[in-house]
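Posting this for the archive.
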Amino acid sequence: MQLGNDIVDLKIDAEIHPRFLDRILHPDERILYPGIADDPKLVWTLWAAKESAFKAFRQSSTRFFLPNRWKVDIKNSRVQFETQSWILGIHSSEDAVWATSASNDFEFVSEIRSGDHELSPREQSALSRALLQDLVQRYAPDAVLHKDEGGVPRLTLNGYLIPFSMSHHGRHVHVCLAQNTVH
């Protein structure tokens, strides 16, 4: 099972440069989303969707992120890269968009916490870790958080990995934690 997420603070990133669109859009997305250059919220939604799927994907691969090779299909709630596809969840508020991507249909919890000002990287990291700890305490209190041999944080319970993903940007942090993954 793979799980990834991403969040974009719309108050931080409001301007879209045309070269950025060239770099991130899959050729099919220009057809799927006409007028995207005039819709920053849609641009950041596609970006968050691609980032969330990439975070899920990289749990089993070390490939580099080339966003224009990832295709987002909002209508069908999917993100595709080459032959792989992830189930996509997209959410938004007035000041943020966030996305989750999962390799298959499994239950997970997703929560956001926000500050009243743009958080420093240290504050974002601390708030993300605190939110993860809160979710683990509520949904998997016996799980153990540790780093693997490559220094990647892992959450295990009775020898099973529990997928989770953390993201932060601007004033917001977003954490997802798989549920019911240990039998």
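The longest helix spans residues 121-139. Residues 3-178 form one domain.
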